[in-house]
Structures are given as structure tokens and as C-alpha cells.
Predict the structure.
Amino acid sequence: MGILLILAKRFIAGESFEQAKGVVKRLNDRGFLVTLDILGESVTNRKQAEMHRDDYIGLLKDINTLGLNSTISLKLTQMGLDIDDSYCCENVLKIVKTAAGYKNFVRIDMEGSKYTLRTIDIFKTIHGSYPENIGMVIQSYLYRSKNDVTTAIENRHRIRLCKGAYKEPPKIAFPDKRDVNKNFEYMAKELLLKGSYPAIATHDERLINIVKFFAEENKIPKDRFEFQMLYGIRRGLQEKLLKDGYRVRIYVPYGTHWLPYTIRRIRERKENFWFVLKNIFRR
Ligand SMILES: Cc1cc2nc3c(=O)[nH]c(=O)nc-3n(C[C@H](O)[C@H](O)[C@H](O)COP(=O)(O)OP(=O)(O)OC[C@H]3O[C@@H](n4cnc5c(N)ncnc54)[C@H](O)[C@@H]3O)c2cc1C
């Protein structure tokens, strides 16, 4: 656990808002936009779900009071999706309502494929009442995502496009990374041309260059979309994009439930995995 905590510290802004707010302030001062994520997922009791809900409501208030330039990102299994869909929807609705009062924005992260449809349904329900204050995520590794992008464009849904971070079977997701990238490129172009302020969430420099080139070629202004990256990953690239005049939003997670998030980051990159193994055997 000690080694994992060392690695987690590279990817999270601390265990409390007190620590995270300093990180957000520094990022804002340098010109980055932020989205704050209170770590937590797979909640199975109502008390915990409501605690997370209230934490997010408090966070929106703090963001407003401190004048931070930050939206929020949350996971539906943190809000009770494993308990009951309409209960979860009610919890998220309360958060989005609060966000609307502060003219802020809530992004619903996308989790494993078991939750995709239900996440989209809850998103659509809330989007009906708060179209300006809620967005969702589409993962390019899923076969279904091309259709989801078309629906999102038709309904002016605000989308964050990413590759996808969960382990999915070949029945529903591209097993070959080249296909995931190809799909990402296709959907990014569709969203840039026809979407509503899409967020291009990747650290893949080749895809980022394709997006930059495509936007220039099609005269899509730099304020009509944003790049998003995770805190602690490819910092040089984040700075470079900012310097070139692009909007860059950093996803900043904090909180005590850092383990599943950290494991996803380790799985994504073999260097992280070797770092953990090397340190275990060094002891
Ligand atoms: C802002 C944001 C929000 C996200 N939200 C979601 C979500 O809601 N649901 C979801 O399933 N996934 C989400 N993801 C994760 C995403 O799906 C990918 O798993 C993750 O971004 C890695 O893919 P990549 O696009 O960076 O490309 P990759 O091809 O995996 O990586 C490209 C390059 O980025 C660097 N890199 C990537 N990952 C790491 C890492 N862990 N450690 C060190 N370097 C790394 C490396 O230099 C690598 O060569 C999000 C990602 C971002 C940036």
C-alpha cells in the first residue's frame, strides 16, 4: 500500500479540499481551467452516497466563494447507481441544481460498460431541465460510441471524448488500440464540426496534433472546444497547448478513496506498473 500511495500522490491533489484548493489556485494562476473530482465510486449504502452528494454541494459553494475557475466531475456509482437508478438521479439532480445556481457545470464521468446505458439515461433526464449545466463522457473503445456521438450532436449534449479506462471484452469494445485511436479521431472530428463545445480528453500527442490541424483547417476557433488532461500526466504537453492559445482543463482528483483511480492509472502505462513492482522487490 505504501508504494501505491507514493504513486497516487503523483496523480491526486491530496486527500482533502484544503490541499486540492492550493493546486487549483496554482493551475488557475497559470491559465489552466480545472475540473475537480472528489474520489469515490461503487458506493453501496445510502448514507455514504448522500455524504458524497453533500460533499459535492459543499465543493460547488467553496469553488464559488474562493472564485476558483473549476467545474466538477463525478461518478454515478458514487451517487448510488448500485443502489437504485432513480435514487441516484435525485442525488445528482440536487448537485446539478446547485451548480446551475452558481452558473457552474457538472460532468458525469463514464464508468464500466455495465453502467453505460443507465448513465446515459440519467444524464438525459437531467439534461432536459439543465442543458447548460451538465455534460457526459463518450469512450472511443466502445463499438456503440459512434452512434452515441451522433445522438449527442443531434441533442446538443456536451461531450468529453476519451479512449476509456476500464477493462472491456472484445464483444463490446475494440481490443486493438489502433482501432480505439481511429475511432477517437473520427468522433473528435465529428464533435469539432457539429458538437457543442466538445472536450478532447487525451494525452496522446499524435491525436492532439490531428485535432489541432483539423480545427485550423476547418477554421474552428480555439474557444469552441477544449483539451482536457489528467493531473500529473504529460505536464510539458499541457503547458505547450496553453502557450499555443488552446483552452486546457486539468482533471484534478482528491480525497481518501484514491485506490481504484490510481490502479486505473497504473494499468494504463507499463512504466507505472514497473515502478510499483521494482519498489516492492527492493524492500
Ligand atoms: C480529463 C480526462 C477525463 C477522463 N475521464 C474518463 C472517464 O470518464 N471515463 C473513462 O473511462 N476514462 C476517462 N479518462 C481516461 C481515458 O479514458 C484514458 O484511460 C486515459 O486518458 C489514457 O489514455 P490517453 O488518451 O491518454 O492515451 P494513451 O495512448 O493511453 O496515452 C498516451 C500517452 O499519454 C501518457 N499517459 C497516458 N496515461 C498515462 C498514465 N496513466 N501515466 C503516465 N502517462 C500516461 C503517455 O505518455 C502515453 O504515451 C479520462 C481522461 C482524461 C484525460
